[in-house]
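Subject: for your reference before the review

Hello V.,

The reviewers asked for a structural picture of the protein, and I figured it would be easier to keep everything in one thread rather than splitting it across files. Below is the amino acid sequence we used in the manuscript, unchanged from the supplementary table.
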Amino acid sequence: MSSYRTTSTNNGLLAYGLTFGIFSLLFLFSRLSFAQSLHLKGKVMDVTNKAPIGYATVAAIGSTNASSTDDDGNFILKVDPGFSKVRISFVGYESQDVSINNETYQELTVYLVPEEHTIETIEITAPRRARYSNKNNPAVELIRKVIAHKDENRMASYEYAEYRQYEKVSLGLSNLSEKFKNRKVFKNYQFLFEKEDVETGGRTRGYMLPAYIEERLSQIYTRKKPNTTKQLILAEQRAQFDPKFVDNDGLSAYFNKLYQDIDIYESNIELVTNQFLSPIAGSSPTFYRFYITDTVKTETPYLVELSFFPRNKADLLFQGKLYITLDGKYAVKRADLSVADDINLNFVRDLDVKLDFEQDSNNRYYLKTSSLGLDFSLTDKGTGIKGNRTVTFDGFKTDIVQPDSIYAGPSVVKIVQENDTTLDETYWATHRPIALKPNEQNIYRNIDTLQLIPSFQRFMDISALVLSGYKQAGPVEIGPVNTFYSFNPVEGFRLRLGGRTTDRLSKRFYAEAYTAYGFKDEKWKYFLSGTYALNNKSVYTFPQHYLRASVMRDTKIPGQNLEFVQEDNFLLSFKRGENERYLYNDIYRLEYKREFENNFSYLIGLSKWRQQPAGILTYQMLDDQGNNRLFNALNTTELSVSLRYAPHEEFYQGKLYRTPIYNKYPIFYLNYVAGLKNVLSGEYDYHNFTLGADKRFYFSQLGYADVNIEGNYILGDHIPFPFLNIHRANQTYAYQLRSYNLMNFLEFVSDHSVSANVQYYMNGFLLNKIPLIKKLKWREVFSAKVIYGGLRDENNPAYTNDVFQFQKNDDNEPITYGFSDKPYVEASVGLTNIFKFIRVDYVKRLNYLDQPDVPKHGIRVRVKFDF
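And here is what came back from the structure prediction:
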């Protein structure tokens, strides 16, 4: 039996929406379990003064089982099997959801937090409440002591430390009904379904699938000066899917991105690709309310139970409890973190973090265990994806000086060899600090078995077609389907059919081709490429190392350069304004690409390019007598070199594109293109340099900004405008991140320019403060795009007749320009997270408004998937 289980991982990153696409494919398990009724008793009190709250409602979430407290705040509640959360509520207080376990008898102490700006009722049914204030608040004074001591309590304070780390990530499709399980289509998959675990939070509504698991064992070394962390991966394994459908490395990296390490001492904690303000960040008293709710004297040293809640429940903040040591160190001994139900966080139905710290030989505290549970779902009650990441730390040692060679090289080094046969189940059984649960042990076998079932293979095939646009057909893939039909003013209706080979045909050679026909221009177009992998890996697998040759004849809009989408995509057929200036391109290209494990890459290319104007585009030049000379074609030969460095970059490798998830590290790129005159019929000499950088900046509760800075300079004289920098315009109704959305095609050209593009996502910080509006969970987004450039006289047709004239409209008015003494600027304000997927921007163009047929403002739409 063939198996897709592996013991080695290369990091990559999955596109956000793929989480739901992949797990929608998996249908799962059988083994029923039944639980006895749970008997709860406890007390409900006001968190500000510990006074009992009478007549508060205590109810199991999703059930009709409910009770109320007596005059002394006491309650008794019997809970049916299958429920694992109770909600305590009372008028004038914020409701609290409390998790319960599967023990038959349990006691709870619950503190309710008064709502702000609540009008007291005439009939007093609750204790008097003091308005919350940071001033003279012992809880705030305590958290400030924790903040003051956090630098000496965190891992980075050790001069040297080393420890063994075990990580486990497990996920499954959750909340599957009996009716769903018993559908005829799942007849062959009953071995996968099992009863959902009552301990996982919320009400147990049905069956679940443990559908993915990954384990990693590492040795970690840290030092303070210079600040360095080295991870040596000793062993790892994961459940793996058929690679022709799924990028397993990208899937693994994506799950590790969602389930990141949690350092309570960091000011901002990144979870599900967002930053949450830590309750012990320096600014936490501004955003959190703190209450001392208990003193734990059963441990040494004594602990203070410090409860905290967000001031605004829609912000990206935690709620929970910290247990602080009373030994003068004010260290965190334990932390329980969750989020409010009203948080502006997409698709996350539940979030639960548990951190436990242990004293070392110097009586300082280090993290012993970390657990992060996440429950994802499109709806509050529907099928979801439930997962957990646990990390255990053993063998913690300090003050052991390791040689510099230990810290040299990359921060993460894989000691384990791919397909190491010694890493069998016996190895893992003896090296895991915590044994796998029975359902987790079955995941590896079940995933292998599932993929041998023909009906599941067909289902994966169809799903790959929907998600990626390609249809498997033996050793080839047909697609992408969204380009099969499109239209434009030059070609009219356009039909296209294409495909490519896969590693089933060859692991070294890959071919790709398409042919297209325009019914208006009655011309055939085509593309053919052959790629040879020099590292015996798929050319779509990181790190890429290949040699590629291609030939193409097709249409193109001058200056349009699209990312993550093809120009003949059907949805881009709809455009505003005049867009009848096209090119017929004949391009022969040879390129060599090399990527390295440190995310540096280079690409060397040689192209022979013949372009012919199409539609109403003209290439014309004035002679000495002022007469127009028309040119039917333009030939150039180009040598290009591209360098790119993206430290710590991760991505998901899809069928067409790599989909990145941003991190805090910048990405740098340098592109050089040389026009070679008299080489392969090249007609012009020029040197085009582009230098740029991309960076995401995080602002904690104020959101984040994606910033691109780019400069361009072209050396050469008498260069026609097709070889200058034709700035990227957009005449569709979709908001494009890299294009100028209110600039017309061919409107601006330059031979030197500098630009800045800022996309600022505020994550609802303002809208979360507006009553009623905050329930929509919309988020603010702002953008500004600025470009300033110039055109030297020797390349400007206004000063020389040795270059092509700029384009004019039917009224003989110029529609192509160089920049004057001011930059082009456009800005937008918008709403994102509409229906969780839609971004709508109002875009305004701020200058160059007197040029013909330019829009002054407009509405643009973009599909944007975010947590």
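For the response letter, the relevant points are probably these. The longest strand covers residues 160-176. The two ends are 39 Å apart (CA to CA).

Happy to draft the paragraph if you're swamped.

O.
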